[in-house]
Amino acid sequence: MDTKNMCTCAEHLAMATVPKQEWCEPYDWCTALSEGTIFPCLNLTFHKAPIGKCECKTSSSMSDITQKNREELMSELAAVSFALNDLTLYLDTHPDCPNGASLFRDLLEQRLRLLAEFTHRFYPLTESAIKTGNYDKKMYGWTEGPLPWEGACI
């Protein structure tokens, strides 16, 4: 064995352990999105950054109420989508958790409903939303909504 590339230190500077996560009651979805996890038991504050705020500009072609409604629905969709993604990571390591599996089904149904509602009221956000959202335009429709750099905070 070649020992010239091996560490000969007698000291250990650190040892890491990763405790097994247990199920805990999740945050509400808006809190989860701002905290970066749906699980309060994983929310260990090492360095807390200041809470930012999105300052959206209303597009000149839209009324203020339309922009407000779109932003509210998009915020709800973002929170549910984040919760679904975070829960997916949990289920990768806990596939037999009945609480997680049940919540996953509920969140998936809620996300699909929100995508369909957004598509029906505004424009499609995903490829599948064109079909599931009963998008009634004859054309493809991908460019119907404003792009983020056009003043929409979505």
A few lines on this structure:
The chain is mainly alpha-helical.
Describe this structure in words.
The chain contains 4 helices and no strands. It has helices at 29-35, 64-93, 98-121, 129-132. The longest helix is centred in the middle third of the chain and has 30 residues, at 64-93. The chain has a domain at 29-38 and 63-150.
**What is the terminal-to-terminal distance?**
58 Å
For the secondary structure, the number of strands is 0
Fraction of residues in β-strands: under 5%
Major sheet, described briefly? none
Order of helices and strands: HHHH
Specify the overall morphology: elongated
Q: Could you report the average pLDDT, rounded to the nearest whole number?
A: 78
* Helix-and-strand structural type: mainly alpha
Number of helices: 4
| Share of residues in helices | 40-55%
Computed over alpha carbons, the radius of gyration is 22 Å
What are the low-pLDDT stretches, counting only 5+ consecutive residues below 50? 54-60
Topology:
Layout: H1 29-35, H2 64-93, H3 98-121, H4 129-132
Helix pairs in contact: 1-2, 2-3
Salient structural properties:
mainly alpha, 154 residues, 42% helix
